[in-house]
Automatic annotation (TrEMBL), chains A, B:
This is NADPH-dependent F420 reductase. InterPro entries: NAD(P)-bd_dom_sf, NpdG, P5C_Rdtase_cat_N, STEAP_metalloreductase. GO terms for molecular function: coenzyme F420 binding; cupric reductase (NADH) activity; ferric-chelate reductase (NADPH) activity; NADP binding; oxidoreductase activity, acting on NAD(P)H. GO terms for biological process: copper ion import; NADPH regeneration. Pfam families: F420_oxidored. The keyword Oxidoreductase applies. Residues 2-108 form the Pyrroline-5-carboxylate reductase catalytic N-terminal domain. It comes from the Archaea. SUPFAM superfamilies: NAD(P)-binding Rossmann-fold domains (SSF51735). Keywords: Oxidoreductase. GO terms for cellular component: plasma membrane. The keyword Oxidoreductase applies.
Length: 231, 231
């Protein structure tokens, strides 16, 4: 799958880029506002990947482009943007994202406005993913990858102990994103149904942030139980 | 622990009553608006418990009282009420609940008002638990037990595959409720911190309801990962 991560220079984006790149099913592009920042991040990712003992990393490559070029190039475009800059970033990308699967990773943490990361603000549409879909009516928005901690993503020697909860109004697009999630070692992609379910998925992140702080944990995650044999 | 379950005749309340009663550390009281309904529920619970093969059920007993008497009698009082009747039920119990640990199990599912159980309404205080605390300023409110499915609770032969997330502003009270949760076979009680965190805990239930419907699952639950050795 040709997948771009816009805002791929951040912790979460870079971690996902490396994890996707570790699976030969994926072609990965890191996008950034400035091309040189994307190139720098891709270089860092390649260096970190070269240290992975358990994997033949000879043939892994990660491309680097501006957000706009990455959006044009990829089939699936992940948005890993600071929540407060979501809409302003999308302004220039709207046309390039037409007809594409756009995956919304943002969580409306109140830290974006100087309050705590254990609090959220409420988007008028109910969730960030619904806000993005409203702004990009000609794209297919899928919500996912909010709850996988970046430290775990970057700990490349170990599998991820977290499910990736996915929501969206287009069943085929959800299926594609579940498949993408499942290319990460240890991850279980779960299609949760309609995009509005993203309200609950996004709000799991502040709970995990709270547990990370309270228990000084590297990175908490979650597993859904009771779906054995049903996915 | 002497624990009362008000609204203990409902599915969730009855399931919890049976599970608590299976551990000899607990004395269980089922409360109901009408005493005869509580007696009926306790009888049903005792009958179901007598069928459990894996357990010596000779000495298990469950008491039955009106909600008011149960509130007076117990040390820890669980509220397992229909969300929309929470405040009207508490009106007569306010005095009896003074100085007690009151555990809020309610989730503000929109089904209370004829909409879907995969949607929630927003309480003015942010969560039901915070609403209950505001109404009972002289009680210590702890939020918990929202996400354990009643079908799993009633399937007495099998352990529960779900964590119980707990939140409250009084650390000692949280600890007590974590201990109570841990008396249930398979459950892992997790203190998540301040009562306001209940906002996120309560909103996991509509997500699990959605997964139950989508995948025709008996009962989904969740496990928090990344806290191994830290609880």
């Amino acid at each position: 799958m040709k997948v771009a991560i816009l805002g791929g220079t951040g912790d979460q984006g870079l971690g996902l880029a490396m994890r996707f790149a570790m699976n030969e099913a994926n072609e990965v592009i890191i996008g950034s506002r400035k091309e040189e920042k994307a190139i720098e991040a891709a270089k860092e990712a390649m260096e970190r990947l070269s240290t992975v003992q358990s994997k033949d990393t000879k043939n892994i490559s990660i491309n680097a482009m501006t957000n706009l070029d990455a959006a044009k190039e990829a089939d699936v475009v992940l948005l890993s943007l600071p929540f407060e800059y979501t809409i302003s970033t999308l302004k220039d990308l709207k046309d390039a994202l037409k007809g594409k699967i756009v995956v919304s990773l943002m969580v409306p943490l109140a830290s974006a406005f100087g309050d705590k990361p254990t609090r959220v603000i409420t988007c008028p549409q109910g969730s960030v993913a619904e806000m993005v879909q409203a702004y990009l009516p000609e794209s297919t928005v899928v919500s996912g990858f909010h709850n996988v901690c970046h430290k775990c993503l970057c700990d490349l020697e170990n599998p991820i102990n977290c499910d990736v909860l996915i929501a969206g109004d287009d069943k085929e697009a959800n299926k594609t994103v579940v498949e993408l999630a499942n290319t990460i070692n240890g991850v279980n992609g779960i299609d949760c149904g309609k995009l509005e379910i993203s309200r609950y998925i996004e709000q799991i992140t502040p709970l995990l942030v709270q547990l990370n702080i309270k228990y000084k944990a590297k990175g908490t995650g979650l597993r859904i139980t009771g779906l054995e044999g049903k996915l």
